[in-house]
Amino acid sequence: MTPAQHPANGVARHCRAFWLEGLGYDWQALTRGRTQRRLAREAVLFHEGGTASMLYVVVQGRVRLVTYSAAGRERHLAVIGPNGLVGDCGMVDPGRHLTSAVVSADAMVYEVPVPEALKAMQAEAIILRQVLAFSDQRFQVMMHHHDLLSAGAAIKRVSFALLGLVHVYGVPDACGHRIRIGFTQEEMASLCSISRVSVSTAFGELAGRGLVLRDGRRVIVRDVAALQALAQDSA
After folding, report:
1. Could you read off the pLDDT of 95-137 as tens digits, one per residue?
2. Per CATH, is 19-147 categorized as 3.40.50.720?
3. What's the fold here for domain 151-232?
4. What is the secondary structure of 16-61 as a DSSP string?
């Protein structure tokens, strides 16, 4: 069972997470014989509008896809984790990156020249199918993110994001559902387009209501139904 198929009782089936991790793809036909590149947190892989010369396969860590407003404010799109692809958007047409890519957590990636990546897709049908499947997953993430940004208040945005994470990465826990991937408040703030202080305040209020527990960088959702009601509350 892949993370995207994981059933978390009580979570709306339309929910999707914004972190694409634990993906079951096999990219050996792309990465065979290539050297891994280590990237520190906040390193920039490429900028929006730059020539799309490389496709990146994430081995570990996380890379976030972003665009920037005219004022330079970062606008979050998605986070790509192990076995995900970065740099494929725009590599064929227009041949320029459609987003920027910034490392969210220290990462290791394979770099694959775009001509070699396209050649592999033509030669091996499984690679092309995986690229298309990954593109579908990323599109679902972006649709979910659009819903999140319509949620309004910070606490509703954080609740909405947690619902997606518990649906995809939630595992049963004595206290509810534990989200089995860790994330920082900065990542949640970027995801929800709010400040880190707002994230901290939202988590404090959710904890005060008995809806979540923090266990280091892990989060336990104690009452999924109540969290869902809060996220969908029109008030």
Report:
1. 999 999 999 889 999 999 999 999 999 999 999 999 999 999 8
2. no
3. Arc Repressor Mutant, subunit A (1.10.10)
4. --SEE-S-----HHHHTTPPEEEE-TT-EEE-TTSB--EEEEEEEE
